Amino acid sequence: MTRLLRKAELHCHLEGAVPPALALAQARRYGVATDAFMKDGAYVWHDFTSFLGAYDAVSGLFRSEDDYALLTETYLDDLAAAGAIYSELFISPDHAEAVGVGADAYVAGIGRGIEAVRARSGIECRMVVVGLRHCGPERVEWAARYAAAARNPLMTGFNMAGEERMGAVADFARAFDIARDAGLGITIHAGELSGASSVRDALDLIRPTRIGHGVRAVEDPGLLARLADEGVVLEVCPGSNVALGVFPDFPAHPLRRLQAAGVKVTLNSDDPPFFKTSLEREYEIASRIMGFSDEELDTMTRTAIEAAFVDEETRARLL
Ligand code: ADE
Ligand code: ZN
């Protein structure tokens, strides 16, 4: 039973965390048909590309500042009830712009949600802006400039998500420079859909302190040693990896091998209802299927807090 363990996650996409019941309520409210991306109360997709399509469709159901406040509160209330003390939410101003909300109203709604749930449960949350790789370097630079100019104390990091198999990492280096120069924490999706060379490129060209997934570094022992040496933290999402077919099942998942190689690892839910998971389930899988002890799970929680994009006072309080 991991319910009572302290938990933290560094890797959850806000638009990927919409409970299907909330998506249905929003769809009814805005008169949107859901058959293309939902069936029997669950999201429907069959590969990464169709997952991104379903994700975009669900994002399109949130159309105002209040909608985003509601979504943020729904996610954080659930997480706090599962024993989480900290969460980093990946937010996508591109999705807000696409639906016509505008990035400022989007961020304001999320910020309201974060503060409301912190007031009632104590859970801390920060926003990490993501640029979408499949939208190209110009859009990712736009997202970085937006994050850099915001000077919002709840917006503390920058990331790139989306289709890892598109474009070269080097094309996105300038976006990360903009974010880093503004004092934002840096993480990047790599080593999920593409192999170890993608992680190597990310380390060489982006210099992140964390990597989203990074699990395919396991294909290269030299790279594992480098990750361990440099203390780069992996945001590992086992449920997502198995759902997307990166690994066939949980016993084949490399979380234990990464940890045994001295790599710093954390547990994360990524896009929980799309992958039929939750942060609590990730801890449960690590415990029951992968054989991590409660002490090892607590170490992962502490690693997440140590790697979190927060001020030192908040970090000390959470640790
Ligand atoms: N966006 C949302 N989920 C993602 C994932 N697992 N990989 C890349 N981009 C994403
Ligand atoms: Zn992700």
From TrEMBL:
Residues 7-319 form the Adenosine deaminase domain. Pfam families: A_deaminase. Keywords: Hydrolase, Metal-binding, Nucleotide metabolism, Zinc. GO terms for molecular function: adenine deaminase activity; zinc ion binding. Substrate binds at residue 271. Zn(2+) binds at residues 11, 13, 189, 270. Binds 1 zinc ion per subunit. NCBIfam families: aden_deam, PRK09358.1-3. This is Adenine deaminase. It comes from Rhizobium subbaraonis. The lineage of its organism: Bacteria, Pseudomonadati, Pseudomonadota, Alphaproteobacteria, Hyphomicrobiales.
